[in-house]
Amino acid sequence: MERTKICEIYASPESYDKTLIKVSGWVRTIREGKNICFAMLNDGTFKSAQIVFEDSLKNFEEIKRQNVGASLEVVGKVKYTPEAKQSFEVVAEEIKVLGECASDYPLQKKYHSLEFLRELAYLRPRTNTFNAVFRIRSEAAFAIHKFFNEKGFVYVNTPIITSSDCEGAGEMFQVTTLDLEKINGKPDYSKDFFGKKVSLTVSGQLQEECITHAFANTYTFGPTFRAEKSNTSRHAAEFWMMEPEMCFTDLKGVMKNEEEMLKFVINELLRKCPDELEFLNNFVDKTLLDRLHNVVNNDFAVLTYTQAIALLEKVKDRFEFPVEWGVDLQSEHERYITEEVYKKPVFLIDYPKDIKAFYMRQNDDGKTVAACDLLVPGIGELIGGSQREERLEKLTARMDELGLNREDYWWYIDLRRYGTVPHGGYGLGFERLIMYVTGISNIRDVELYPRTVGKIDY
Question: Taking a C-beta distance cutoff of 8 angstroms, is the pair 3, 23 a contact?
Fold first, then answer.
């Protein structure tokens, strides 16, 4: 007999009534009586199935004493119960113990804080909260691929090891095969594996632009790394980035794609994960569903950086961080704009060039660049994008101004010499998206095994 998935029964419990099936999973709870017991069995489906077994079962005593966490294989008949809390139950005829669970199993039927569960990262996917989070993460990733595939974008895999710093921040993880314990003084990188100093990538954008100039529309989606010594709830050393690049477009085209992509992903989650989102709305963030519907049901506003500063200066006394033209906006500023002024997502455009990356296209005013940050209620910045600088002389002048070595970017510069076109793109921090669509406030709780400064378990 093949195993039946619990989700299949939930989809149509009446059609399984009186059907003999086999289900397998982990015990969430056991309630025992003198002659009858009830066990909640979970096989990865968000909702568990209630298993009923009586003392007529030949190994009744063995099953009765199993601990929470034990894995069982159950053969029994489905009983359709539309009037009960559960729409069905499985009346067991046979139960086999697949794996016993020790009595010190730490996930008991009680409330566990997210901080406590963080120390049990190898077990926490079995809880309702993390079952919901990681299923939503999976569906969101699939939705991203689906969106770009249906629009004809080519999925590319950019290098994880690189010799260039995309953002110019210098906070990169060095990769070397040199024996660091035997080095005295300055390392000789000519003897290293690649013959030069290399690091883990902070972004695949620069390399991706090369292939975009062949396919016109591409996206990359993979792990990136940043050696930023920050212990905030929004920063991790290893995280995933989704970065599309588009030729023959300007900043408006970039923003249009961002809005379409975000609405598509959220609509897919609302359609495919209703139980998970309802649970998170009830137990994690009671504003979650309203916030998601706000995103998909509204046209996004557009506001220049200069206009935003003017708005913020009117109420500058309420902010912890100072507000003046030229500063990088903080989360409190971004949330004020989206939650109190516009009450919906806002594109903030035309940032001062001095606080943005070298590759962003300079505007005619000489002070700002064609950048766009998508700010959303409840979190602030969710996506950062720009039109890329396609003019050779402007790009190289900006690199010189920032002290970047042109030789490290010779191939990127050559793109401007060999048939460049207006183009742009954006970067979506995938974990930040998952935080937004689940209501989870700490990035450590949307990654399976988070890597943060001073912390690398498992």
Answer: yes
